[in-house]
Amino acid sequence: MAIREMRYISDPVLRKKAKRVPVISNAIQQLVSDMIETLQQEQGVGLAAPQVGVSLRIVVIIMPEEEPLVIINPKMVKRTGEREVTEGCLSIPGYVGEIKRSVSVTVKGEDRQGKAIRIKAAGLLAEALEHELDHLNGILYIDYIENQDKLHKVEPKASDEGASDTSEQV
Ligand code: NI
Fold it and tell me: How many domains does the chain have?
């Protein structure tokens, strides 16, 4: 496994629509392992392949004290409700924003063995799924910010303490 180089907000790869993974090859397995390691190093909740410069439909989510969740070719099948969250993104360090997300979502896709999976989630996992699936379509959370008052600067390092009480870097 290896740490991959993170891509940040001005990188055009973050604005591209990512391509479907046609076959879960050895190279894809390597990428998934690297994404998990990179996400652990960054101490984030979720990571989408474009954030490490690969325009493919793969997301990894690591909920606190849980095994990494890998979803290949994920598809949003249902969203219900609406709630306000304070959210950050590993590709936009130093900021968090208040936006609206669904209360619960259902996502289907494949695991890293190619087996079909279906995930129904609420709370932080639902937020992370929406955020990461957006990355695959070139969408960043700041696109949902209604006005400047809803975007806040945070100390990138201090976010380990203060800001992470109310927001997660997804
Ligand atoms: Ni993000």
Answer: 1
